[in-house]
Prior knowledge:
Zincin-like, Immunoglobulin-like, 21 strands, alpha+beta, binds ligand BES, 5-stranded mixed β-sheet, 19% strand, 7-stranded mixed β-sheet, single chain, Neutral Protease, domain 2
Amino acid sequence: MQFRFQMLMITAILVSACAEQAPEMAVYDPAHDYFSFANTEQFVTEHLALDLTVDFDEEELRGSAIHRMRRIDSDATEIILDTRDLDVTDVRVLLADGRSLAADFRFGETDAIGGSPLIVSVPEDSDSATVFRLKLQYATNPDSTALQWLPAKLTAGAKYPLMFSQSQAIHARSWVPLQDTPAVRMTYEAIIRTPPELLAVMSANNDPLTARRGEYRFEMPQPIPSYLLAIAVGNIFFAPLGEQTGVYAEPELLEASVFEFADTQEMLEQAEGLFGPYQWGRYDLLVLPPSFPYGGMENPRLSFITPSLLAGDRSLVGVVAHELAHSWSGNLVTNATWRDQWLNEGMTSYLESRLMEVIYDKDRADEERVLSYQELLLDLDEVPPEMQALAPRLDSGDPDDFQGTIHYSKGQLFLQYLENAYGRDAFDAFISSYFDAFAFQTITTERFLDYLEDKLLQSEPSRVSRAEVEQWLYQPGLPETVPVPSSATLDAAQAMAAAWADEKVDVAEIPIDSWSPQATVHFINSLTADLSQQRLAELDALLGLSDTRNAEIGRAWFIQVARRRYEAAYEPLRQYLNRYGRGRLITPIYAALAQNGSDLYRAREFFEQARAAYHPITEASIARALGLDDY
Length: 631
Ligand code: BES
Ligand code: ZN
């Protein structure tokens, strides 16, 4: 945050002035969260109690948040919380002896990305309390960046409205005033008041048998960082998948969801075998409407999932394996700041591939490894070198823009490299001891590195040196020793693309029915540059690519359609852009249209027609891809 950044600048200037040097750059502190205003070295929240009314007419949550806070610095007199667009009406300190003291509060300067720091003066009478409760009365704004209020027509059933949150990376502050940094963990409880016909669920102990009466109570006894606070309210019902697992969805999607995610219980059991005990009680999924901006979000006990996984053949459940794996990498051991995001996402991508291997087989896991490696290679062409490190310098900008395949795929490859060097048994033992050692803690890349050195590298120093590890963590690109994944089935699909382009095989001979959707995606990605419209038409007619109901095949195909200006498929492309709202699926298609030299205006037209149904996060990323300056 600018505020923190300036403080460090001042320190840097003082330090360098003493050394009689001109200041060049502020000192970068990898342990500091530049995306929060909170003064967490002085006060920390240990427990949060929410009491919120969900008002669909006003599109607002209103009520109170009570923080149980611990004073770490006995001289500190001001508490700074993160907020964005919150209407705070009353703040008081509640003392153990029952007294309630009104506290003065004001907002600091608003930052476009970080929101507004809420500065609370601790009343003098409560100066000596080390633990106290801070109660804030507040309401959210309809434009809260964390909450999407969907009118009934944008839900599957079209009868009831639905609301859901997306707190990662720094959106929790737009629905709760809090210390919005992954460095602080808190337990929480909540009372959520909704219209009586609707159900509320949270990233907490959802009771599948709860009575639907418009008042729901939650408890989250394990301490979590703020980005894992989550809520959804709608015409949502539950169906069990296994003893400890189940799925929530609108009734229209429930049966399809039960079929698609039938392997979830087994995933959980296998994950425990590989990574250690699951620490969170139940594991359920919530299938949201199409506007949910991500494939999945690992909200503890209740992953939020895009309906675009409902392909009817369980081919896209790698996303579920991924969100489940976050129950260890991310939710149990958490990145200290967004700069260390690879600790969450890279580790999770590695665990996801391991899970896919045991639940399905190595071929399937290898297909997915190759596809994500290919995406990484494309990204490495685009991402500036200083942002290609797994742990780069990250102290400005929007952490939502700090996404992409680097932390995911490069992180996964780094861990695969370590596995190969030390052998699976030794590496598995390392991984479970790591989860055990840092359970319910937040750690920086540097702490990971020290632990790795201590527990793994030093056991056999000749296999991997600290310098090699540092190259992965701090240098751009990929080291020469990168373990390049390979897949025989994907190779065959690629060979088929070349043979068909060379007219060595006829389109009718392409064995698409015997391929996995991943092989089909790879085939589409491998189409050579110089295909005539006529040949694309042939391909589409026989393979039915424009009509596919598999969202990943559609993504790969419509990117090609847009790049190659294959206008005959623009109508199904337009429909695709209206069917899905997940950023990964649609943003690259808009970008390809915008970049093909002719269709920027058409892309903007498609966007105008579809944007009302998109989530603000997706809307913003598409607007940027289309050069629209309202973002
Ligand atoms: N935690 C992420 C989603 C996220 C990342 C939200 C950063 C906000 C900021 C989630 O676990 C994720 O990685 N989702 C992927 C799944 C895929 C890699 C299997 C997605 O949405 O595509
Ligand atoms: Zn993830």
